[in-house]
Amino acid sequence: METRSVLFLGWESDIGDSHSDPESGRGCCCLSLKNGSDVEAGPTNQDDDERVCKSGEFFCDDGHCVSVLFLCDGTDHCSDGSDERSCPNCTSGFRCAASGWCLSQQQLCDGQSDCEDARDEDPLLCASQTTPCAASELQCRDGRCIHHSYKCDNTNDCSDGSDEEDCDVNECLLNNGGCPSVCVCFHCECPNNTRQRGDGHCEEMNPCLEADVCDQLCSYSEDHLSCRCQEDYEEDHQEDHQEGTAAGACRAKGDAAQLFFADLEGVHFADITDFVPKTLQSSHGRRHMTVLSSNNTVFLAQPGSTSIYRLLFDGVRHEAQLLLKAAGPVHGLAVDWTRGLLLWSSADSGSLHLSVIDGSVQRVLWTGLDSPRAVAVHPERGVIFWAECGKNPKIQRSTLDGQNRTTLVNTLIHKPVALSLDLPRDLLYWADQGLRRISRVNLEGHYRKTVVESNGFLDRPFGLALFERFVYWSDEASGSICRANKHHGRHFEVLLKDITSPGSVVIAHSALQPNRNSGLTTCAVDALTLNISCSENGFPPVSRTLPASSLSDSTFAALLALTMVLIVLLLGLCLWWCREELRPLTSNDHSLTLKESRDPLLRDANIDLNLCPTKETPVRLHLEADWRSSTDGQTISPTPPSLLLLAAPL
């Protein structure tokens, strides 16, 4: 039997056999490579007159066997297309009329007729396609993308011939052709050792990201790449061999990681070594999730609900406990495990929120956002990321103290619904539900790259996660959870199928949430007010100005009412004080009769009774009363008894 190099979904082997994963039972598609170029699918361990497929495989009309996972996925895995016939659902939305084949988005308007009647290349259909072209491509009027080198080469590469129009015009003579750097004939070019970004500008090339062979740490010197793993990981030489690279793969130390996912039936988890799902809790519709590995806690939120729950996964079945009530519906969750913070987005109110991990204190971090959906946090950098899905979709970042807001992506983006960070490489991944792809940039928004494009299992992504060498995602359209290589999207594999509306997908492992001080950024958190102050120790640039805390409407109303009450009390106190101070003094002078007024002793005395040092006793009142009652106005004592008593020394 001839020995050939066989490429499996996720691994390679130098055998001539079609295989299934012995642990999970999932079928694996094998591609037999002949002469390094010809590719055919089929069993190599069966004689030509005995074509029997294994369990979990599909028998093509031409006698080949392919995995049942490839049935009706929009791609012709059988050489005769029999795996795409009579499919009940066509996820890409285009089915050939004659054969009934279901075509993927990549097969539409690609310049090759996949339907017998060439309906997939119809000009009217292709004119409605809005797939953006890469920076090195030119878009035809019919919607197709061709390479810039095909422009004005005397060959109609566009079906409408638009690539051969205006060839006698040199656009570079007018405003440099709109190029920020170098304009050649009709398109922009970049100098050596630079590359062109999606916006046309040039950026310095990053050999590590261009090569994309290191899972984690990478250094480049003298035309040589060196890969290293972080302290919580070790080199995986088996993966290196499968990838055909000398080094670069890293495997997490310790126990196997757990993959958590939610659907309409509950919260489930599976070991990434076998992907056998187990139910953690039965519930309805809790689909947004994040995990805190240090205390085995999953945080959950149902779309459209203001409630956030927490659920333990310590081997004992628990019920989800209500953690907090948010001010608005929750659409994305993230956790800062180093500072004990929980963050979430609310698309309805256009805001980002955070709270302490026990839910006791919460505050608003950002308002006025355009339908924010996904959120992610980089604890070592002290940076939060979020994706907006409104009229102007974009991905932005800011520091945890609400400063240095920066736009990372705002071109070639339609509906970013999920974010995930590759912390060792400082890369941000996102899933675009509108463009049906998974892309990445660095934390400054540079070195953008599309990693995975729709292949029938990325038509409506919801959740996104990264671990080791793979990017994981959930797809609502196909009801599946898949993974592929995070560098280039190869080694695609469907892990779980027939899931009822899968939601978020997260991976729990201690290596993903290390408790180490990177020395990059320090952010101090006031646990009572949740005010955060960050100081810069490298990257990113962080303002040292503590921002004013944003308040929710209910909190603001309560503080306003309390302020009004205090103002009323203060005004009342002021009025009482003024009344007491301005009250006229009571005079103790006695009115004198006519005869008394003629008495020089009384008239000239001018005695101020209030200033005399006297000792008042009850006798004074009695004597004065007796004296007044005995006076008839005719005779008068020279000195009344009351005056004698009042004038007596103390």
From TrEMBL:
Keywords: Disulfide bond, EGF-like domain, Endocytosis, Glycoprotein, Membrane, Receptor, Repeat, Signal, Transmembrane, Transmembrane helix. The chain crosses the membrane at residues 556-578. Pfam families: Ldl_recept_a (PF00057), Ldl_recept_b (PF00058). The keyword Transmembrane helix applies. It is found in: Endomembrane system; Membrane. This is Very low-density lipoprotein receptor. GO terms for molecular function: hormone binding. It is a single-pass type I membrane protein. One of its GO terms (cellular component) is receptor complex. LDL-receptor class B repeats lie at residues 382-425, 426-470. SUPFAM superfamilies: LDL receptor-like module, YWTD domain.
